[in-house]
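Predict the assembly for these two chains.
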Amino acid sequence: MTRTLKIAILSLGTACGTTGAEPFTYPAQVVGPGPGPHALGDWQITLTRADVAVGPIYFCATAAASPDLCEVAVAELTVPFVADALTTAPEQLAEVTSLPGEIHSAMLDYGVSWFPTQTDPTVMTGLGHSARLVGEAVRGDMSVKFDAIIDLPPPTRGSPALVGVYTSTTEEVPTRVELGLPVHAWLGGVDWDDLAAAGASADIRPGDPAHTAIVFAMTVQPPSFRWSAD
Amino acid sequence: MPHPALHFPFLAALSLAACGGTGDVQVFLAAEDTIPEGLEPGTGDEQIVDGWTVTYTKFLVTFGNFRASRSSDPDDELRDDTILVVDMRGLPPGGLVVAEFTDVAAERWDRVGYDLRNADDDAAAAEGTSAADRDFMVEHGYSLYIAGEMTKPDGQACDPDEPDVCEPQARVTFAWGLRAGTAFDDCAGAEGDAGFAVPQGGTVQVKPTIHGDHWFFNNITQGAERTERRAQWIADAQQNRDEDTSLDELRATPAAKLFTMALGYNLSGAQIPIVTAYDFLEAQARTIGDFQGEGECPTRSALP
């Protein structure tokens, strides 16, 4: 699918010559919630590392981005990157290639893709995973240090990890898009009481209940997109 | 100079003639087979892979505001503001006529939508729907009410916190009302053909179609329904093991513990944040408005 889209948008760049539409690029900036502490219920979470692999991302004109409904992307970010979500100042990490047009939805991978021609999902960044979240959770005199390595591959071959991500811009020619990564919210479903009861430190790995909770949150609380045009 | 209005009928007639005359539109509200017939266990189309059989005893929706227009002339709109509470298990074969339009331009009406609204006093009982059902929906403001049972001879209910801890449970009932009013737009047939085409001198039948299986999906459909259907989550969310899963029990069950990646769930693209099992149910209830059978209405927006 992703390769199909890439080809499709590049083809459009030439096919649209009759309408004068030419591809253009603009920066993708990333912001995170910072190290915290972040209040999650009774727990305070402080992050010391929050690396998140993002991309590819496909931006679609339809209200529901999916391989069925978005055969041709309006814009795309084809080179996955690793964002430091501890930063609260927008940081430029990638470039979006676009044609003029409104965007109403997106689909994306968290640095692990599964192209139609591949037998297994493929890691796309040096991080080697979808995310690495390290920090400490504290509640009163209880605490637990955690190191979470998160893998979130696409559910099926040829599909992105996330589809139908809502976003909207009426700027037909944006000059910047800002991605918000709500990593603190992704930790909200973790049962910190259980983790703390098991010991002073916890390695969260695929198959663990805490990993399941984080993956679920990354799926239903996707990155946000804020568009602007100078 | 004559009054401009005097010119209009002539100009309109000229315009319609240029586009191929006029035809009629009949709008039928249709139910997916899963509503009257239920769902069987198995791996085939519309079957439940984890072995449960599902039967509905009640399936009510509040339907209305059918609309259609053409991208080429957005101001020319077909609209019927009627709001109906409809017993989807009692529809005539082929569907219930909910709107009719005559002498409309014989062209493709590519922008089609309708609402499943939260019922209010404006809602009437559709033909074949009891006054009691209509009053029930209006009293609670429901857009959807479903009741039924799931059976599985060797069924189990498992603890979401400890999935290996299970008890025998061969039958689970449910009775759920939701205020999940949603507007469904940009409807297209299963082949992706937007809206419908009106034949010159003929009648096109248009079928908004309500699906009865989306809360069994392991994803939020965007376009074609490529999904597995699973019902075990309903049994597992039942906390007191009284053979009934209530909405309160769904609200008390974290979604992340039921809808796991290991079971193939991917709930990206939901219209609302999904935290509990109830949120999952509501998110799926906001997707059941489809078109011409298996076609989709992918633009969905919440209604008050």
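Chain A has a mean pLDDT of 87. Helices of chain A lie at 2-15, 183-186, 192-198, 209-220.
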